[in-house]
């Protein structure tokens, strides 16, 4: 299992009128962390596209554990499972220090970079994820 992390500081614009992070921003952070994890594994999304594949979200699940607020320092931890035939499961923990603020699971599907039709993960991608784990 490949593991990565992405630090962030909560911006004022990400907070609601109660001074807490608005729920939609968590998925944005998760998407950002997923992009950074893929950068660590294969060099970035553009490398995937240049090699003929892309990823699309098939499912997302998010659990809120504790509120986060303006100017707090958080870390989004990412773990990538070994790819299935066409899917890639990733899990996330958003932490403030040792406290878990939120947890998530995402399923991405491999698609052809031109037609966006679902396809199997190529061997080179499987090898890169295995090597990163």
Automatic annotation (TrEMBL):
Which InterPro entries does this entry report, sorted A to Z? 4-hydroxybenzoyl-CoA_TE, HotDog_dom_sf, Thioestr_dom, YbgC/YbaW
Which Gene3D superfamilies does the record associate with it?
Hotdog Thioesterase
Does this entry carry the keyword Lipid metabolism? Answer: no
Please give the CDD domains that the UniProt record associates with this protein.
Answer: 4HBT
> What are the recorded GO MF terms, alphabetically?
fatty acyl-CoA hydrolase activity
Is Hydrolase one of the keywords? yes
Chain ranges of the Thioesterase domain = 19-101
Q: Which UniProt keywords apply?
A: Hydrolase
Query: Hey, which family's this protein in?
Result: Belongs to the 4-hydroxybenzoyl-CoA thioesterase family.
Entry's PANTHER family? 4-HYDROXYBENZOYL-COA THIOESTERASE FAMILY MEMBER (PTHR31793), NOVEL THIOESTERASE SUPERFAMILY DOMAIN AND SAPOSIN A-TYPE DOMAIN CONTAINING PROTEIN (0610012H03RIK) (PTHR31793:SF27)
Q: What is this protein called?
A: 4-hydroxybenzoyl-CoA thioesterase
Which source organism?
Mycolicibacterium anyangense
In the record, what lineage is assigned to the organism producing the protein? Bacteria, Bacillati, Actinomycetota, Actinomycetes, Mycobacteriales
């Amino acid at each position: 299992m490949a593991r990565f992390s992405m630090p962030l500081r909560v911006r004022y614009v990400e907070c609601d009128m109660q001074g807490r992070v608005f729920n939609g921003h968590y998925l944005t952070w998760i998407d950002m962390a997923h992009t950074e994890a893929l950068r660590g594994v294969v060099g970035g999304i553009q490398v995937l596209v240049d090699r003929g594949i892309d990823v699309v979200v098939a499912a997302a699940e998010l659990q809120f554990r504790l509120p986060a607020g303006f100017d707090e320092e958080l870390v989004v931890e990412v773990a990538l499972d070994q790819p299935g035939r066409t899917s890639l499961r990733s899990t996330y923990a958003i932490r403030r220090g040792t406290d878990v603020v939120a947890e998530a699971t995402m399923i991405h599907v491999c698609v052809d970079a031109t037609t966006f039709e679902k396809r199997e993960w190529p061997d080179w991608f499987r090898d890169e994820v295995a090597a990163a784990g």
